[in-house]
Amino acid sequence: MEKRFDVAIVGGGAVGCAIARELSRSALSVALLEKENDVARGTSGKNSAVVHAGFNNPPASLAARLCVEGCAGFAAACRELGVPYRRTGKLVTALGAEDIPLLERLLAQGRASGVPDLALWTREQVRAREPHIQAAAALWSGSTGITNPLLYTIALAENALANGAEIFLNFPVEAILRTGDGFILRSGRRALRADWIVNAAGLYADRVAALAGDDGYRIYPCRGEYLILDKPAAALLRAPVYPAPRPGVGGLGVHLTPTIDGNVLVGPSAEYISSRSDTGTTATVMARLWQEALLLLPALAGCAVIAAYAGLRSKIVPAGAQNFGDFIVEHSRRTPGLLNLIGIESPGLTASLPLARLVLRLLGEKIPLPRKAAFQPERRSAVPFRALEPEERQAAAAGDPALREIVCRCETVTRREILTALDNPLGVRSLTGVRARSRAMTGRCQGGYCQQRIVAILRDEYGVRPEDMRWQGTESWLFTGAVK
Amino acid sequence: MKKGALVRPDVAIIRPDVAIIGAGPAGLAAAAGARAAGAERVLVLEREERPGGILNQCIHDGFGLVRFGETLTGPEYAGRFLRAARESGAEILTRTMVLGLTPERRLQALGPRGYMTIEAGAVILATGCRERTRGAVRIPGSRPAGIFTAGVAQYYLNRQNIMVGRRALILGSGDVGLIMARRLTLEGGQVPVVVEKLPYPGGLARNIAQCLDDYNIPLRLSHTVTRIEGEQRVERAAVARLDAEGREIPGTEQVYDCDTIILSVGLIPENELALKAGVHLSSVTGGPLVDDAWQTNIPGIFACGNSLHVHDLVDYASAEAENAARAAVAFSRAGGAGEPGLPVRPGAGVRYVLPFSVRVGTRPLLSLRVSEPTGRRRLVARAGGRTLAERVFPRLAPAEMVRLELREAVPPGAKALEVLVTDA
Fold it and tell me: What is the distance between the alpha carbons of residues A175 and A187, in angstroms, rounded to a whole number?
C-alpha cells in the first residue's frame, strides 16, 4: 500500500517549497514531489534574483498585491531562514525624454498598489547614486532587493523537512489516479496517495493539472537568457538598473543586476519557444545582451563574461498578446481536491511566501489546518568563510582543520563548506547541488581548480565511484570510470 | 638555514626576505635563485599538496630541451627544480593558499598551520595561469555534463585516473588540447575532430605532428562549435566554418556525435592577488606590466612565469624566474623602486614584448610573440635611432615565443624601444 499524505505538492521550486514550509506549520502530513534531483532546478534558479517592489503589475492584480506583501516580508523571511538578502533599491531608467511617461505610469501604478519609497529622479540624482549609468531620468524604488534564489528555495525545503514534510526528489509525476477519497500519484514504479494535490509545477503546471483531469490551462514558455559577469563589474553599479519597459516586450527588458554574491547579471531576453526544457543559450541573444548592457553602462566594456544561462517564464498569455496574465491560484473547477497555481512567473520568487499563505487560506476553506506547536521557523546556517573578517577567519581556522583548506579559490570556499554542502538534509550529492549550496565552481574559473577536488572528496570521503557521480540529474554522468 | 626556521608556532608574523607565491616551475626556480643570490630567508607558499604546479599532471615528455638538453616529463622537470629549491634551504609551505596581498607586501595565507600573516622584504608572483572557460568564449547551447577544459580533463586522467568520456570533440588547438587529443586516444577514447577558429593552429608545430597527425585526428582550421546539444550529458556538437572576419558561414554547419567536449581555448595569467595589491596588468598579456627587473608598478612585487605571460616552453619560465629572483633579493636589501625606464613598444607584426619598460644602459633579454604566422622574416629592436638587435627567423608563429638578446645597451636619450617584424 502506498504511503498516504494529506497534501502532495507537485513542484520543488520557490513556490512549491514555500507552500511545503508554510503547510508544515500545520499538523497535516505533507509530501513535496520534484522531478529533478534537487529543488530550484527550474525557473526558480534561473532568473534575475531580484526581490521586486511590486510596481510592474497592474494595481489590484494578485501579482501586485502578493509582490508588495512578499517584498515587505522578504528581509525577515531571509533572516529566519539563514539566507542572504540585501535591500539595494532599483532604478528604472529613461534613456531619453520619450521614456519619461513610461516611468510616470509605473510610478502611478506602484503608488496605487501601495509600493513604498518610489520617486522620479533627475539625471543628476541618478548620477549621484550610480555615476556610471547613462540616463535622462529614472524611477527609484527604495524597497527592491536582491537574494540568492537557490539558497532561498533550498532553505524553504530544508525548513519544511525539519518540520516534518517529506521531500521526494527524482519524482516526476507521470500519472494521477482519482480514488474514492483522493489521488494516487505515480512516478515510474513509485507511487503515493494524497487527499489533496497542490499543483506548483511551474512550466508543467498545465500538464500536471491535465493529469489530474483538469485540462483548462495552457502554459507558454518564454525563454530569458543571461550573462554572468566577473566581480570587477560589481564596482560599477550598486543597485539593479532596468530600462523603461517598452510595451509588448515579454519581460522587463534587458537589465543589469548586481548579485548578492558579488557578480553582475545581464539579461534577460524574452523569446517564446515551444520547448519547456530548452534552457540553452544562443549566439544572437548573447551578442544582443552584451550590446544592450553597454548602452546602459558603457564602462562594462572592459569586464569579463564568465558564464551564460537561460531560464523559462511560465506565461499564460501567448506571444504577441498585449493583455496582462495575472497569477492564477484557485481550486480546480473540474477536479475536486486539486488546487492549482498557474502562470507564476516574475515576481513569483518575491511573492512565494504570500502565495503559500494564500494556498493555506484556500485549503483552510475546505479542511481544518490545525497548528503544530512544535513548528520551528528558524533554520541555522553558517556564515561563509569568505564573509569573515581576518580575525574571525583566524579564530575559525584555529578550531577546525577543514577551515584551513580552500577548495574553491575564486569564491574562497573551504573544505568545511564543501562537506556541509554534501551533507545537506535533502541528500543531494550532485555537483550542481554542491555548487548551489557552497558557490564552489561559480567563479571566474568555473570549477577549473575546484571541481576535481570536490570529485576527490566525493570519492575518498563519501565512497562514491567516479562512474556514479552526477553533474545534475540521474542521466548526467560525469565519468566512464577508471582509466584503463 | 634550518627547515622550519621561518614558520614556527611561536612566531605571530612570519618575516621572510623573499616570499614566493606558487611552487610551480617558476616559483621553484625563483626560490633556488633567491637563495643563490644571497637571500637568507626564502619562503614559498603553495596551495597544492605537492610542489610542481601544472607540471605534475603533464606526464608527457618534451620538457627541458633548452635548459638541460634532454627531454623530460613534467614531473621529472619539476623534480629537478624542487630538489634544487629544497637543497638551497628555501622553505616550502604546501597546502597553503594566499588569500591577501597588500602593496606593503603583507600577505594573508591559510594552511594546515592555520591563518598566517607574512611580511616579506620582496614578493615574487609565480601564480601561474588558468584556462579560459566556455562562458568566456560564449559557446551557445545547452549546459549538460561532459564539458571540460583540457587541463581539467588532463588532471582527471593523469592524476586521478578517471576517464572523462568515450568520444570527445576538442575545441581549440592550444597545446593542452593537442596533448589531450593524443592522451584520450591512447586511453581508448575517440577524438572525431579538433576544431580551431583561427586559420592557423594555437599550439606548437611539434604537437600538431605528434598528437594529431600521428593518430589521424583531423584538425579543422577556421571552424568553431556553434551549438552544444544534450540535456543531461553532451550528445552532439554543431561545428561551422568561419569567414575571414570570424563570422559563421551559413550552410556550413556539420553535426558531430560526441559525449564530451574538451576546451583548449586559451590560458589567462592568474593575477587576482596582484590586483588586490594594486598591480597594473597588461590588457594584451593579462600579466603585470613589469620593468626590466621584472618588477611591477608596486615596489618590491615582482612577477614571473605564466602569471606574467603564458609560456609555451617551461624552460624559459624558469630562466625568467631566476632573473626576477635576483632583482627581488636586491630589492629586499636596498629597497627602492628603481629609476623609471623608457617604454617598450610592439611595432609592426609584434603582439607584445616583455619587459614593458627598460632603463638606459641595460641589455635586457626581450620575450615576444608575433601577431600572425609568417615565413622568413627579420625581427628588429630599435631605440634612439640605433638598432640594438636583429635576427632573421626562417618562420615565425604566434604559438612560439621568441627571445631576442640585445647586442648593445639601451642608449642615452632614447625615448622608446621598438620591436618589429621586417622583411628578411
Answer: 7
Residue A415: inside a domain, yes or no? yes
Q: Taking CB atoms and an 8 Å cutoff, what residues of chain A touch B228? A: 280
Residues B174-197 pLDDT 10s: 999 999 999 999 999 999 999 999
- Using CA atoms, how far apart are residues B18 and B39, in angstroms rounded to an integer? 7
Helix (H) or strand (E) holding A72: helix A62-81
3-class DSSP assignment, residue A260:
coil
For residue A24, the Cα-to-chain-centroid distance in whole angstroms is 21
Stated pTM of the model: 0.96
CB contact under 8 A, A308 and B112: no
CATH of the domain at A455: 1.10.10
Residues A311 and A409 in one domain: no
Contact A442, A54 (CB under 8 A): no
Does a structural domain hold residue A12? no
- Could you read off the pLDDT of A46-63 as tens digits, one per residue? 999 999 999 999 999 999
Catalytic residue among A52, A132, A255, A331: A52
Shared domain for A281 and A390, answered yes or no, is no
All residues at 6 or more sequence positions from A255 whose CB lies less than 8 Å from its CB, including other chains? A48, A240, A241, A242, A243, A266, A267, A296
Complex-level ipTM beyond the 0.85 threshold: yes
User: Based on the domain organization, do A396 and A299 belong to the same domain?
Assistant: no
Task: Spell out the alpha helix ranges (H) of A146-275.
Answer: 149-162, 205-211
- The structural domain count of chain A equals 2
Q: What is the dihedral of CA A223, A228, A229, A230, to 10 degrees?
A: 180
Distance CA B363, CA B359 (A): 9
> Are the beta carbons of B41 and B31 closer than 8 angstroms?
no
Q: Quote the distance between the C-alpha of residue A433 and its chain's center.
A: 14
Domain limits at A139? 86-146+220-315
Q: Best interface-test mutation with B: which of A306, A409, A431, A441 has the largest number of B CBs within 10 A?
A: A409
Q: How far apart are the first and last CA of chain A?
A: 46
Q: Is residue A371 part of a domain?
A: no
Chain A residue with CA closest to B157: the answer is A483
Residue A41 within a domain:
no
Contact between A472 and B232 using a beta-carbon 8 Å cutoff: yes
Could you please report the per-residue DSSP string of A269-288? --EE-S-SS---B-HHHHHH
- Residue A99 belongs to a domain with what CATH number? 3.30.9.10
CA angle A172, A213, A12 (to 5 degrees): 30
> Which SS3 state, helix, strand or coil, does residue B379 take?
strand
- Clarify whether A331 is annotated catalytic: no
d(CA A161, CA A32): 9
Instruction: Give kind and range of the element (H or E) at residue A391.
Output: helix A390-399
